[in-house]
Amino acid sequence: MMSPPPRSSITLYNQQQQQAQDDVVGGVAEEATEANMTTTTKTKAQTPLSEIVEAFEELAKSLNSRRNRNSDKGAGGELRLDAFSKTCSLVSVLFSCLGLAFRFAESEYVAKVRDLVEASKEYNTLQTIIDLDVANGTVRTSGSHSRNLRRVRQGLDLIRALFEQFLSTNDYSLREAATTAYSQVCAPYHTWAVRTAVYAGMYTLPTRDQLLLNLNETEHSAKKNMRMYIKASLPVIQYIDRLYISRNISLDW
Q1: What is the Cβ-side half-sphere exposure of residue 167, based on CA atoms within 13 angstroms?
Q2: Global pTM?
Q3: What's an example of a GO molecular-function annotation for this chain (predicted)?
């Protein structure tokens, strides 16, 4: 008969087996932790600016798809009012990141977008609200949906112009970029008093680094997202302009 192994050998064997089991369990736990960290990282990667870009890309894609199937008196395609107003509502955070200097734009923009959100509960497309105001002779009337759409379009274009100036050179201060963008897009339609107040407020704008911090972006990611916003928003802006022009409505207001 073989004698049983020494108790010390059995203990050592059991310890080795337990260690192997612990290693397996530990490895599974580490993999799960890494997977969770990856998921969390992907979630954190979504910033206000990247969310805006994604929404405008979907809007532009939808517009292009409808344009291929339809035509609207030279404007091309259709754009749903609910999708448009929902996307535009995301942009208000960009105005708030710019501080006091753009508070005028933020308050006006938010109010106009809110009106379009409410209008989307009754009207399907951008064309519908413009045609309604054309029929009623209220396109330029204060508070009309068409006038509010025009102001929202200017807000989108102001951000586009600001991003273009921001990207033009690393030495360009945010104040210089914002001043140039405002002069191009909004100043021609504002009174002297409003223009004076806006230009004075430009000195309160955050620095480039502060803006990136406010947006939760790095220099690299901000530039990438700004370029993507410019590319995605421009077709939407141009589409809105064509809606007015195709109905013989000038854009000098």
Answers
A1: 17
A2: 0.78
A3: ceramide 1-phosphate transfer activity
User: Residue 194 and residue 181: Cα distance in Å, rounded?
Assistant: 15
Q: State the DSSP string of 38-60.
A: HHHHHHHT--HHHHHHHHHHHHH
Dihedral sign (CA 79, 59, 232, 214): positive
CB 227 within 8 A of CB 168: no
Residue that wins the pLDDT comparison between 99 and 158 = 158
Nearest to 109 by CA among 158, 49, 57, 144: 158
* Residue whose C-alpha is closest to residue 93's, from 222, 177, 215, 204: 215
217: which DSSP letter? -
Give tens-digit pLDDT for 21-32.
555 445 544 544
How many angstroms separate the first and last alpha carbons of the chain? 107
Contact 121, 197 (CB under 8 A): no
d(CA 236, CA 56): 8
